[in-house]
Amino acid sequence: MELDDTDREILRILQEDARTPFSEVARRIDMSSATVHDRVSRMEEAGVLTGYRAEVDPKALGYGVSAFVGLRVRQGHEEEALETLRAVEGVREVHLTTGEYDVMMRVYAESTDDLRDLMFGQIATMDGFDRSQTMVILGTDYEESGVPI
Amino acid sequence: MELDDTDREILRILQEDARTPFSEVARRIDMSSATVHDRVSRMEEAGVLTGYRAEVDPKALGYGVSAFVGLRVRQGHEEEALETLRAVEGVREVHLTTGEYDVMMRVYAESTDDLRDLMFGQIATMDGFDRSQTMVILGTDYEESGVPI
DNA sequence: AGTGAAAGGCCACCGTC
DNA sequence: GACGGTGGCCTTTCACT
């Protein structure tokens, strides 16, 4: 699907605040809200707009620890490893990557104890596990949600 | 702020689809929409609900390459390094971490050429740069946006 | 692809319990 | 803290350009 500047402007506004009323979006891009509605629908159907998410502070829900975990998997055991990882509570993202690790994960835990259980109890003991490195996030210096538009 | 089960249920619904009308949320949790409105406002003010974001497919905007970049910084040059990184187009997240790197970043690029410019043109030449490792994301096996509720 | 109009639905804000 | 009611705004659709 081809996106023009108007589409990009709409995306920018909704990426900033997904609950912005279409009528307000229309005002800002100087078009009717029917048009906005139309374009948004088209972008949803084309898979450009994939959803609308409320952002929740992890700390408020008791997740005080967040980490990246790099993982090496034994050759031939990739599929079973991924399947296990997907099912681990706290594992939010599982990416296949080039470089030092085969898999890069993003995990949330309630505490370091909880993270320890997750790593040594579930991940290190799984089928296909080779070795891992846990990079605990001490702080986030900069975070821009979404895509540059 | 203390969250009860009703609050959590509201968060779960809005994390799934931030544009769900409050009246619909109210129906699902079997309360009035005035109550939902009330609770949402309280959670926004308390910083539990930090925003609402439309999710956009990076590929649709021409960002075909995504990577994690681990970075080591020369001691005493942390601040200037972070400042530089924040300003690099394509750098979306900058986290301070324990482990093998000092900084873990998440970057988007339009192509491998673009990524090369970003790494060798801007990051490797910056003040305080020690060394880096780029982990290009070949695929994402699992991704659960937001926090487990 | 964009528009205005219109019906129905929704939001936000009361006052009340 | 939760509720019903209300006025104004918003969404969605449609015929027309």
Description:
Helices cover 37% and strands 31% of the residues of chain A. The first copy, chain A, is an alpha+beta fold and 149 residues long. In chain A, strands 3-4-2-5 form a four-stranded antiparallel sheet. In chain A, α2 (22-29) packs across α3 (33-45). The longest helix of chain A has 13 residues, at 33-45. The two termini of chain A are 16 Å apart. Chains A and B meet through α1, β1, β2, α4 and β3 of A and α1, β1, β2, α4 and β3 of B. The structure holds a DNA duplex (17 and 17 nucleotides).
In short:
With 149 residues, chain A is of the alpha+beta class. Chain A has helices at 5-16, 22-29, 33-45, 78-87, 112-123; strands at 49-56, 65-73, 91-97, 103-109, 129-143.
Helices and strands, with pairings:
The structure is a homodimer of 149-residue chains.
Chain A lengths: L4 H12 L5 H8 L3 H13 L3 E8 L8 E9 L4 H10 L3 E7 L5 E7 L2 H12 L5 E15 L6
Antiparallel strand pairs in A: 2-4, 2-5, 3-4
Helix pairs in contact in A: 2-3
Chain B binds a DNA duplex (17 and 17 nucleotides) through helix 2 and helix 3.
Q: What separation lies between the terminal Cα atoms of chain A?
A: 16 Å
The residue-averaged pLDDT of chain A reads 97
Q: What order do the helices and strands of chain A follow?
A: HHHEEHEEHE
Oligomeric composition of the shown chains: homodimer
State the share of residues found in helices of chain A, binned by percent: 25-40%
Largest Cβ-defined interface: A-B, 65 and 65 residues
Rough shape of chain A?
A: elongated
**Which blocks of ≥5 consecutive residues of chain A have pLDDT under 50?**
none
Which sequence of strands runs across the widest sheet of chain A? Answer: 3-4-2-5
Task: Give the DSSP E fraction of chain A (strand runs of 2 or more residues).
Answer: 25-35%
User: Mind describing the biggest β-sheet of chain A?
Assistant: 4 strands, antiparallel
Number of helices of chain A: 5
Count the strands of chain A? 5
Rounded to an integer, what's the Rg of chain A over CA atoms? Answer: 20 Å
Structural class of chain A: alpha+beta
